[in-house]
Amino acid sequence: MHSAYIIDTTYFLPEILIDNERINAEHPEWSVDKISAKTGIEKRYYAKEDQTSGDLAYIAAEQFFEKGIIEKSKVDFLILCTQSPDYFLPTTACILQDRLGLSKGIGAFDFNLGCSGFVYGLGIAKGLVSSGQAKNVLLITAETYSRFINPNDKKNKTIFGDAATATLISSEPVLGKPVGKILHFSYGTDGSGAKHLIVKNGALRNMQKGNAADVYVADEFYSNDDYLFMDGKQIFDFTVFNVPGLVNNCLQKNEVTLEDIDLYIFHQANEFMLDRVRRMCKIPAEKFYIFIKDTGNTVSSTIPIALNHALENNVISKGNKVLLCGFGVGLSMGATLLEY
Amino acid sequence: MINIQKFLEEFKEQYVDNEATGMTMESEFKSFSSWDSLTAISLLAEIKYRYNVDIEEDDLNRCSRVADVYHLIEKKIAHA
């Protein structure tokens, strides 16, 4: 079995800035301070009207290649994690192979996961590399959830932002560069909670779109089946009651203890929930990385964005063990350990 | 019997910036400025975790004092 390493990562945030002042102007009953006090979020970015997830993915990948770590011709597999693809078919990754000018001798496909997606992507990439099917896998996460958010839905508006990231997973480390060896994984799925975080209309189960009405509960926007619906309580409960077990399981598989881990990077959902789940996991605050203030919850991109920042700011050094954990829509979760 | 002191401490922890340090069993818990739907969700998760009791958001919304929530949990435990 070959080892698999995270070589490097880049990310792209689109141009349209949605700060708390703007949300406050749209929803005057909500104060700027109150929005950021709980979520920990001050800014998010939205893709331009004519910009798709495929476009964001393309930019993130081009930025990755500009770093000069790898030539395009050396990439032999492309995986894209998205829930807002350009088309029903073909898979956006095929279009990206052509746009990026990657070899025609590569495999390329999309997979549909949200906040757990990056960890699953690493799992797939490691599988491809360690079984000898690929040597250099480009894993892209790209999401334009902004398209799914109803203009009256102030809660989801404060949380989500658009972004894309590109990460290279290779069979060989790069000399003189801190790379993360991908160790063992733990996964979890509870499809009974699918209805708690969902865009109901527009795909084949309910094709009609455009006729759904806004539903209000106690004068507050609650749902519209054409748009993203999130039952905050259910997602909160799923997270705080299941993530600690998942983390423990991952620690056991890797034969390490909670104390052996130098840094925990969880999906950056919102700061309030992260704080609760951190305490439930008994992780000290100084080992728990938070990077959400200037990006918002960018779904499958939060973990690679946070990882990128932790590396750039020298929070991670050689020999460090970093535990990644994603959880959310599906309901789905996954965790893995990186050794730098 | 739930330990009142511990219960009150757990309740206070749901608020940001130590806002609820002066909270008592008679306090109107929704009157603190950081109280919102997220605080409610977190409080209910804490209750479920500590006391293995499921309380609906609607039932919590009908409570006004901290003591009301305490009695609601006691009642749920007694009927479990």
Describe this structure in words.
The complex is a heterodimer of chains A (about 350) and B (about 80). Chain A is α+β, with helices and mostly antiparallel strands and about 350 residues long. Chain A has 2 domains: about 170 residues, Thiolase/Chalcone synthase (Peroxisomal Thiolase, Chain A, domain 1, 3-Layer(aba) Sandwich), CATH 3.40.47; about 160 residues, Peroxisomal Thiolase, Chain A, domain 1 (3-Layer(aba) Sandwich), CATH 3.40.47.10. Helix content of chain A is about 30%, strand content about 25%. Chain A has a 9-stranded mixed sheet with strand order 5-4-6-7-1-8-15-14-13, sandwiched between helices. A two-stranded antiparallel sheet of chain A has the order 2-3. In chain A, strand 10 and strand 11 form a beta hairpin. The model of chain A has no long low-confidence stretch (mean pLDDT about 95). Helix content of chain B is about 55%, strand content about 0%. Chain B is an all-alpha fold. Chain B has one domain: ACP-like (Non-ribosomal Peptide Synthetase Peptidyl Carrier Protein, Chain A, Orthogonal Bundle), CATH 1.10.1200. The mean pLDDT of chain B is about 90. The chains are: A alpha+beta (about 350), B mainly alpha (about 80).
